[in-house]
Amino acid sequence: MKKLQVEMLQNYIGGRWVRSSGSMKEPVYNPASEEILAYVPHSSTEDVDAAVHAASDAFRVWSRVPVPRRARILFKFQQLLVDHWDELARIITLENGKSYTEAYGEVQRGIECVEFAAGAPTLLMGKQLPDIATNVESGMYRYPIGVVGGITPFNFPMMVPCWMFPLAIACGNVFVLKPSERASLLANRLAELLTEAGLPDGVFSIVHGAQDVVNRMLDHPDIAAISFVGSKPVAEYVHRTGSANGKRVQALAGAKNHSIVMDDCDLDGAVKQIINAAFGSAGERCMACAVVLAVGGIGDRLVEKLKEAADALTIGNGLDKDVFLGPLIRQSHKERTLRYIDTGVREGAHLVRDGRRDAAAQGPGYFLGPTLFDHVNSGMKIWQDEIFAPVLSVVRVGTLDEAIVLANQSEFANGACLFTNNGGHVRQFREQIDAGMLGINLGVPAPMAFFPFSGWKKSFYGDLHANGTDGLEFYTRKKIVTSTW
Ligand code: NAD
């Protein structure tokens, strides 16, 4: 693997690696070993301003580069990502903790976004109507919007930035990324590969840091749009502040995804899917299954099988062979999760499997084993809040109607799944559930890059989602030309 910058991460501004002028920094840990991989600077307002200035200069040229030429650079970038697949996956596991298999899959998701964006010549075509009146024609042309700021979370250091910058730059925009300060290494490698692919200086920049960088991006007058992915309170704040400052904002937020299990389903298949959805990536996925709604008489058998499958999971360093469950991202996140487990017990939920005992067996690293609660109800904090960890709650309900009513009480509405063999149940679920991304007999219904990533309610703030034609609309503005000769 290529040697990483293990001391202080640098910003990437105007095609050059530069030290931040900020005076604060924090460590980026390997969550599996607690070893420090690098320090990430808390960049200053001046650093953000320098990146936006370089980006604005680049925009004047890049926005006029013919679309097929822009696409060609993305094709080259795609090939470089394929060539460096293993290296990228290892960096993800190193800084995020998820298993190598999960990280490998994440790289694939990133590559798919680049492939979608490389279709820019087709995506950016306008529309014409030759006769809107006698001898009068109208046409619609798409244009970029300018400097786009991207603010991303720790849980998908590759996939989430790739939801944003490939399509943004394919559309002729320039992009300033602020990666998560808890998983900041991968972004720098992406910048190196973009440069190798021939992307001109200033089209893609990185400013590392935390809250202050976000705040400067939100009020910088030369940033036209903000793409944000992260937790609900921050998404709500970013959307409100960015919108008040006249920017386009799309802010993808937290989740509490429900899976409904009917007694007519393939139970073993459902258990396999739910285990992966609840405990894969240590539950640190916005599409994680957090609640299972066991319908009718299936509860006892389901809980027994879930426990058995959870007992069989291998916990450890994600780079080790056959490890399924890696650590949580930070000690503070682990402690927050432990408090939720205490709360669940205090609230009267039945702790069927206690992941705390696996944690003790692991040594260094922020490990927590799969944790399973049964007899949870909607009055409990463990049902209401996003825990974002390997903690799964089972709620017993009598009917599909009840299950849907309960799931719809959640303030979040990112994803929802149904396990059944009954077409009527599928139709009822599809029509009545409040969620933007639905799975039938599968556990993680994350849409591919050519569909929008489509959370509802408090899982999304804005109008146009990431990816697909929503992404295209978000990163372009239009001119309608009406003419007669
Ligand atoms: P987070 O909200 O803590 O951080 C996200 C970004 O916001 C980071 O870059 C961080 O530096 C910045 N930030 C944090 N606090 C801030 C503040 N007070 N002011 C301004 N900026 C701030 O999120 P996280 O813990 O990195 O990621 C996990 C969250 O992201 C979960 O809630 C998860 O559901 C959500 N997520 C959602 C999706 C989706 O598609 N809806 C996808 C991935 C992750």
UniProtKB/TrEMBL annotation:
Keyword Glycosyltransferase among record annotations: no
The organism's place on the tree of life at top rank: Bacteria
GO terms classed as biological process: inositol catabolic process; L-valine catabolic process; thymine catabolic process
UniProt keyword list: NAD, Oxidoreductase
Active-site annotation: 286 (nucleophile)
Pathway where this protein functions: Polyol metabolism; myo-inositol degradation into acetyl-CoA; acetyl-CoA from myo-inositol: step 7/7
Domain Aldehyde dehydrogenase positions: 17-481
MF (Gene Ontology): malonate-semialdehyde dehydrogenase (acetylating) activity; methylmalonate-semialdehyde dehydrogenase (acylating, NAD) activity
Entry binding sites for NAD(+): 154, 178, 181-182, 386
CDD domains xref list: ALDH_F6_MMSDH
Pfam families membership: Aldedh
EC number in record: 1.2.1.27
UniProt catalytic activity: 2-methyl-3-oxopropanoate + NAD(+) + CoA + H2O = propanoyl-CoA + hydrogencarbonate + NADH + H(+); 3-oxopropanoate + NAD(+) + CoA + H2O = hydrogencarbonate + acetyl-CoA + NADH + H(+)
PROSITE patterns xrefs: ALDEHYDE_DEHYDR_CYS
Subunit structure: Homotetramer.
Free-text function comment from the UniProt entry: Catalyzes the oxidation of malonate semialdehyde (MSA) and methylmalonate semialdehyde (MMSA) into acetyl-CoA and propanoyl-CoA, respectively. Is involved in a myo-inositol catabolic pathway. Bicarbonate, and not CO2, is the end-product of the enzymatic reaction.
Name the record gives this protein: Malonate-semialdehyde dehydrogenase
Organism: Paenibacillus phyllosphaerae
Taxonomic lineage from the root: Bacteria, Bacillati, Bacillota, Bacilli, Bacillales
Recorded name of the encoding gene: iolA
